[in-house]
Write a structure and sequence with these properties.
The structure holds 2 protein chains of 2 kinds. Chain A is of the alpha+beta class. Helix content of chain A is 33%, strand content 26%. Chain A has 2 domains: 131 residues, 3-Layer(aba) Sandwich (Creatine Amidinohydrolase, Chain A, domain 1), CATH 3.40.350.10; 153 residues, Creatine Amidinohydrolase, CATH 3.90.230.10. In chain A, a hairpin with a 1-residue loop joins strand 10 and strand 11. In chain A, helix 1 crosses helix 5, helix 3 packs parallel to helix 4 and helix 6 crosses helix 7. Helices cover 31% and strands 20% of the residues of chain B. In chain B, the strands form 5 sheets. Chain B has a 5-stranded mixed beta sheet. In chain B, strands 13-12-14-17-18 form a 5-stranded antiparallel beta sheet. Chain B is globular, with a radius of gyration of 22 Å. The chains are: A alpha+beta, B alpha+beta.
Chain lengths: 292, 349
């Protein structure tokens, strides 16, 4: 599971504590389901991982949506109080190497004051490594999101084919996604028109896990270039060799660098002009999760 | 900026960029928003927007640092998207842009109030279509579906908050654990089927060209309110009236909280982990906050001005009999305040 991979990576890199502000990181390591807000937020200490105890601590007023193997610490509107609570978690006060996935001038000052012996450094690269390869359970979560993305785009393309404008396509797509029980989008429908053809990209976030798919109405067939790119998504290939726009998919968007080599268990969003899919890299042929 | 002696402000937060430049980022999950962010460099003479390579990597951090090097002098920043950005800007010794931003955002211009009003109207018209569907047998997520259909048809540029249709118990003993002992509001929709007699606290917020709305009401599923519920609503109106009477230029955030508390027999009529009231702008919740755990010392320093926008969200709670919660958006005027919310309290009118 996510927590064990993160703790293993912390021990490998000699990291004592991670203080995480990014919701995707908190979700990946704790499984906590907190209220979704679109857009990015400034860093605040929303989740803490301690290598020594292998414990995950989640900032939340309630245990609703927080797995029972995660611990809670309560929120406050006073940032100094939140940092005091973080410093009071078992194993934090004695930490020397503390990774963070962002910072603000205020939290930098407060963390330095509360943990005077600690060195703050980039914890995001550690999280990126730990989250890169998905477990079978995590792939199943992404498969679940892919099913919703596929049914949502069918509705969006029907809408485009019967002449809805961009707002109308967005409206029926978001409605269809929520009617499937998923009320959060990875991104709201992206629509591009070229003559009579309408390209729609759908990204859903189901229980915190993303899948996205792009198709073009009215033809709906997938571009040959897309199949060719997906065929190159094999273990050992570099991201740059795929010949498409590529990013990682998990608890939201993951940046991949061009020279990064694919490994089994990575999940990619692969897109070209007019089409895109969510693809699992395997030991053999790539598995297109959004073809259902 | 002049007041703070700052030469250039680096804004990495999308709501701050929207506030300072009018550039509204697309509505998307946080990690995608981070990786594709547009940064604003603001000086007293102009604004420069740039969309660097992802700032979690050296390339992006260096690109941002190079752009910033065009602007000498004192640099303020709202947040460091990554520690790499922190490192590459270290030689500039950045100061915190937050006080400067907070001061600027505290008072809305008439255009900004108009933008908030527009967002609020879209949100409210969408709820016109949702309310009749609040019936036994419907799922909470079905209400979100209806809401989305409406807001996007009306041109909303984003849905900001996963819509909340929080079925609340009559007794706190039947609620999930909280540190405060009060309700764990807000809980997200989970596909729960609504039943006759359920009481819902709803809460929703959309984005219109970078500006936020905030909507909250209490709805009864398949029943008319009983005498207790009616009296809870009447009491809610008394608390709101007390707040509205207190809101005027020169009043402090603490004054508003005290007015609500006094109208509630000395008990705080709001969720203790939240607040009585928050501001709204390009952020769905921003200064001023009234009734937080920051308390009198901080909140009595926060003085309302004409153009400050507040969202009141008092909660009436009678343990064993449930409660009533709603939200009223108001803008401070020269001699008091006026509502931006224009929505009835069904089924009371």
């Amino acid at each position: 599971m996510g927590r064990q991979r993160v703790v293993d990576e912390m021990r490998r890199r000699d990291v004592d504590v991670l203080v995480l502000g990014r919701e995707g990181n908190a979700r990946a390591v704790s499984g906590a389901h907190r209220l979704f807000l679109a857009g990015e937020r400034a860093f605040a200490p929303g989740c803490v991982v301690v290598a020594e105890t292998a414990a995950v601590h989640v900032l939340s007023v309630t245990d609703f949506g927080v797995p029972s193997d995660a611990n809670l610490y309560p929120p406050s509107w006073n940032p100094a109080v939140v940092v005091e609570r973080v410093a009071g978690l078992p194993g934090v006060a004695s930490a020397r190497r503390v990774g963070v996935d962002g910072l603000t001038p205020l939290f930098e000052t407060l963390l330095a004051g509360a943990l005077p012996e600690a060195e703050l450094f980039d914890g995001e690269s550690l999280m990126r490594t730990a989250r890169r390869i998905k477990s079978p359970d995590e792939v199943d979560q992404i498969r679940g999101a892919a099913v919703v993305a596929a049914s949502t785009i069918a509705v969006a393309l029907d809408g485009a084919a019967r002449g809805l404008d961009d707002n109308g396509v967005k409206a029926v797509a978001m409605e269809a996604m929520a009617a499937e029980g998923t009320t959060t989008a990875a991104f709201e429908p992206l629509i591009a028109r070229n003559g009579d053809s309408v390209t729609v990209a759908i990204g859903v976030l189901r229980d915190g896990w993303e899948a996205d798919v792009t198709r073009t109405a009215p033809r709906r067939d997938r571009p040959d270039e897309l199949d060719a790119a997906i065929a190159r998504c094999r273990a050992g290939a570099a991201v740059a060799e795929i010949g498409a726009r590529v990013h990682g998919v998990g608890c939201g968007y993951e940046v991949l660098t061009p020279d990064e080599r694919l490994e089994p268990g990575m999940v990619l969003s692969v897109s070209v002009a007019g089409g895109g899919d969510t693809v699992l890299v395997t030991d053999g042929d790539p598995d297109v999760l959004t073809l259902t | 900026m002049d007041a703070e002696g700052v030469d250039v402000v680096v804004l990495c937060g999308e709501n701050n960029v929207a506030y300072a430049t009018g550039y509204a980022a697309p509505s998307q999950e946080p990690a995608r928003a981070s990786a594709t962010r547009t940064v604003a460099l603001v000086t007293t003479t102009g604004v420069r927007l740039l969309t660097p390579a992802p700032l979690d990597f050296e390339d992006g951090a260096r690109e941002l640092a190079a752009a910033v090097s065009d602007y000498p002098g004192t640099l303020a920043i709202d947040q460091y998207p990554s520690m790499l950005v922190r490192s590459t800007l270290a030689n500039r010794s950045p100061v915190d842009a937050r006080p400067l931003l907070a001061a600027a955002k505290f008072v809305k211009t008439p255009d900004e109030v108009a933008a908030l009003r527009k967002a609020q109207r879209i949100n409210e018209r969408a709820m016109d279509e949702v309310l009749p569907a609040v019936q036994p047998g419907v799922r909470d997520t079905d209400l979100s579906a209806l809401f989305f259909r409406q807001i996007f048809e009306m041109g909303a540029t984003g849905n900001t908050v996963d819509p909340i249709w929080n079925v609340v118990p009559m007794s706190l003993a039947d609620a999930p654990f909280t540190f405060t002992g009060h309700l764990p509001f807000p809980l997200p929709a989970v596909g729960r089927v609504l039943e006759k007699g359920d009481v819902i606290f709803n809460d929703a917020g959309i984005d219109f060209n970078g500006w936020a709305s905030d909507f909250g009401r209490t709805w009864y599923v398949g029943t008319d309110p009983d005498a207790n519920q009616r009296s809870q609503f009447e009491h809610y109106l008394e608390i709101v009236a007390a707040c509205l009477a207190a809101i005027k230029p020169g009043a402090t955030a603490w004054d508003v909280a005290v007015a609500a508390r006094d109208a509630n027999g000395g008990e705080r009529p709001w969720f203790p982990h939240l607040y009585l009231s928050h501001g709204i702008g390009t952020d769905s919740a921003e200064l001023p906050f009234c009734g937080t755990d920051l308390g009198e010392e901080v909140e009595s320093q926060v003085v309302l001005e004409a153009g400050t926008v507040l969202v009141l969200e008092p909660v009436v709670w009678e343990d064993g009999r449930g409660g009533y919660r709603a939200e009223e958006v108001v803008v401070v005027t020269e001699d008091g305040c006026e509502p931006l919310t224009d929505y009835p309290h069904a089924p009371y009118g």
